[in-house]
């Protein structure tokens, strides 16, 4: 492990990659929340619906894992989404202990209506970058996520 001193200036901190990644994530979430502020769904709703669009019938724990949310946060969001009619809980045949979360037609409609907001956010985020730069960025992020995965084992 390389030993280095902590950043000594704000400029050095602003250029420290882990700080930049956290800042991008935090500011990005704030921007997405603002972009969705006029809609009937929240960022957590969009993330949950996006996951269910790919794989319906997940449990709350599975949704939390895939949306990088705390289980308690996901549980509250699922309760609110069920009350809005965006999702419903089902008990599958063969496992009465399992509670699967299913997207309703209203949930699908909300996802489809609000997805352009997410696309507009990403278009603004990548403004001024080339497709090659984005491809390189994606490769680096994938590699870093793989490294983190190994650290968690």
Provide the descriptors you would attach to this structure in a database record.
153 residues, mainly alpha, Arc Repressor Mutant, subunit A, 2 domains, 2 strands, globular
Overview in brief:
By secondary structure, this protein is mostly helical. It has helices at residues 10-14, 17-35, 43-54, 60-67, 71-84, 105-125, 131-152; strands at residues 87-90, 100-103. A two-stranded antiparallel ribbon has the order 1-2.
Notes on the protein architecture:
One of its GO terms (molecular function) is DNA-binding transcription factor activity. Residues 10-146 form the HTH marR-type domain. 66% of the residues lie in helices and 5% in strands. The longest helix has 22 residues, at 131-152. It folds into 2 domains: 8-38; 40-119, Arc Repressor Mutant, subunit A (Orthogonal Bundle). The radius of gyration is 19 Å and the shape is globular. It has helices at residues 10-14, 17-35, 43-54, 60-67, 71-84, 105-125, 131-152, and strands at residues 87-90, 100-103. A two-stranded antiparallel ribbon has the order 1-2. It is mainly α and 153 residues long.
What strand line-up does the widest sheet have? 1-2
Cα distance spanning the termini: 19 Å
Can you count the beta strands? 2
The profile of the biggest β sheet is: 2 strands, antiparallel
Question: Segments where pLDDT lies below 50 for 5+ residues?
Answer: none
General shape: globular
Order of helices and strands: HHHHHEEHH
Overall pLDDT score: 95
**CATH fold-level assignment of the largest domain:** Arc Repressor Mutant, subunit A
Domain HTH marR-type: 10-146
Keywords: DNA-binding, Transcription, Transcription regulation
InterPro entries: HTH_MarR-typ, WH-like_DNA-bd_sf, WH_DNA-bd_sf
GO molecular function: DNA binding; DNA-binding transcription factor activity
